[in-house]
Amino acid sequence: MAEIAPSILAADFANLQRDIEMLNASEADYIHVDIMDGMFVPNISFGIPVCEAIHKHARKPLDVHLMIEQPDRYLEAFSKAGAWGLTVHYEACPHLHSTVQHIRQLGVQPGVAINPHTPVEALSEILPDLSLVLVMSVNPGFGGQKFIENTYKKVATLKALKEKFGYNFKIEVDGGVNLDNAASLIQNGADILVAGSFVFGSANPTATIADLKNK
């Protein structure tokens, strides 16, 4: 059974508190918070004040995903805004070890995300220091994209490395996750499933979260 992290990016921003309270009452394990800057990815989402507002009402840990350039500038601010975990992109961090150490020093769980074109092997030197590895199963920036099938192989490779070396990081998958691929992702080694439009676009988001949880 995987943990579920619904992405607030797909929520109704005009009724954000209502949707957060729905997640609080659901079987969700985290609230996934996608931060986009319009530069690292082509979309702009929201920033620190909205993260603070989400944290004010959330009773689930905030899984904050920084899809931004030069994330080091904002690590402390997002930590203060209530992040339980901060995930930065491998592709955005020229000094990744330093960035990960800074996150941990802030008392926050450090994660690293990889885009679909980035091989798992690129993380080999940093895996011992991570609490989370996020495998992007779509190209980051917009919700509702089609799942990239090669994700299964990447998740399985990460699981094998984790077991071989005794690492403790969780494997998270983000993008195009639904009831058709959830079971296969879990079988291959996924620990956390991020789902946005599939949850919030459903007739009963609470039931959809429960269905994903019990895959």
UniProtKB/TrEMBL annotation:
Q: Quote the record's binding site residues for substrate.
A: 7, 65, 141-144, 174-176, 196-197
Q: How is the cofactor bound?
A: Binds 1 divalent metal cation per subunit.
GO BP term, pick one: pentose catabolic process
GO molecular-function terms, A-Z: D-ribulose-phosphate 3-epimerase activity; metal ion binding
Q: Which Gene3D superfamilies match?
A: Aldolase class I
Under Enzyme Commission nomenclature, its number is 5.1.3.1
Listed Pfam families: Ribul_P_3_epim (PF00834)
**Catalytic residues identified in the record:** 34, 174
Organism superkingdom: Bacteria
One GO cellular component assignment for this chain's record is:
cytoplasm
Instruction: Write out the pathway annotation from the protein's UniProt entry.
Output: Carbohydrate degradation
PROSITE patterns tied to this protein: RIBUL_P_3_EPIMER_1, RIBUL_P_3_EPIMER_2
Q: What class of enzyme is it?
A: isomerase
- Tell me what reaction this enzyme catalyses: D-ribulose 5-phosphate = D-xylulose 5-phosphate
Q: Which UniProt keywords apply?
A: Carbohydrate metabolism, Cobalt, Isomerase, Manganese, Metal-binding, Zinc
Q: Which family does it belong to?
A: Belongs to the ribulose-phosphate 3-epimerase family.
**Protein name, per record:** Ribulose-phosphate 3-epimerase
Organism this protein belongs to: Dyadobacter sediminis
